[in-house]
Amino acid sequence: MSEDKEKSNSELNVKNSYSSDENVVFYDTRESSVSFKNENKQAPRSVNHTTGKNPAATGTRISDKNVFSKKRLIINIASIFLSTVFIISGIVLLVVYYMFTARINYESIDDSIPDLSVGEVSSVVSKTLETSTDTYEGELLSDRQVLNILLIGADTRYNQDRGNSDTMILISIDTKHKKLKLLSFMRDTYVSIPGYGTTKLTHSFSYGGAELTVRTIQLNYGIQIDRYAIVDFNSFKGIIDKLGGIDIELTQEEVDYIDWQTWKNHQADTRNELDAYSYTYAPNSEGVEVAKVHLNGRQALWHARNRGEDGICSGDDYVRTERQRDVITLMINDLKNSDLNTIMNVIYEIGPMITTNLKASEITTLATNVLKYLRYDIVSQSAPDLNMISEDFFYNDYIINGEKLNVIEIINWDDFRKKIATYVFEDSNPLKN
User: Fold this and answer.
1) Do residues 8 and 136 share a domain?
2) Structural domains of the chain, count
3) Nearest to 303 by CA among 356, 343, 355, 249
4) 155 lies in the same domain as 208
5) Residues 6+ apart with CB under 8 A from 292
6) Splitting the chain (433 residues) into consecutive groups of 10 residues, what average pLDDT does each group show?
7) 10, 113, 221, 416 — which has fewest CB within 10 A?
8) Closest CA to 187 of 207, 206, 168
9) Of the candidates 283, 332, 282, 274, which has an alpha carbon nearest to the alpha carbon of residue 303?
10) Is residue 125 domain-shared with residue 180, that is, in the same domain?
11) 117: Cβ–Cβ under 8 A, 6 or more apart, which residues?
12) pTM of the full predicted structure?
């Protein structure tokens, strides 16, 4: 009787051991379906009848649990690390956002202006345009992949509240064609200024500031201006100095002109601060004798304003706009070779020198994409182009407010607008109205 009872207990232990094994085998077969399908061909498992467990299977289960625990530990550590990085990044971005944008002189001309980024553009002024002879009456031309920012160089000196706009350059960030486009609106162009009749484009800024300048360009050229930035003479000098100056190729007479203006305006004690005769000049790609000269902010401003005055240097307003675009191109190319930290420092330093209606969020978006935009090709031209004289424009004299003014008069505004629109947007059918 006792023997039967021991036999029965032994059989029960064996059954319990296989019941436990079945759970392990199921775990194994989940890892390897081949093993499950060919289970009849496998060697029989050894069973420890003392413990009622399969040693090999138990070892596998313990090993798998260890691997699983390690994986969970790694996942938890990674999650904590990433969460910390995201929190720190968020704090840093928030600090950068307020640190940089708080230094920008924000000027709104329309409180209803929506936020925009490259791809979502909106006019800075109402699209209700005053009409006049030869003005544009259609919908302003724009492209969601082209951001048009008007750079206004204000001729504000001697404590004047507001002078003329010495420079009006449209900077187009074209993400569609991967280009940065510079377009100089010639300041002497004869245009219709809302509320002031027809006169030189440059007068629009002195009459009504950036808002009127933007409205005037949109009214006459049909191009949507998305945002603007204003830099006066003092700010321009400060920006160049913060960049450490610029290295630019100049002719001997251009160097001498800078020295002449610096000395004449009592900004240097000597007539030959740069000393035009001390450089070695050599032909550039266009065969013009030039030398590379380092200019500080004050000297760069005289170069950018040089239109051949005082008989020291040849040139006109067309040459001056070309010099202005050359300076901007050099500044951009210098930044191309800089790292992000240097670029951010530059933005931080020059922020207070710029007045703009770019909102803080828009400035942040542009700053985060600055390295991408700096890789774009740079193209530039003037509007109208000097080579198109007699075809697009001619020079004419008008008596305006009792003063005789020599102006640039556009021959056919409709044809001229299409050329400008094609340059800015590279559209085969601009101004579709």
Assistant:
1) no
2) 2
3) 249
4) yes
5) 247, 248, 249
6) 50 42 33 37 46 52 64 70 57 51 62 40 38 74 94 71 82 96 96 94 93 95 94 90 93 96 94 96 95 97 90 90 95 86 81 86 84 94 94 93 92 95 83 57
7) 10
8) 168
9) 274
10) yes
11) 147, 362, 365
12) 0.73
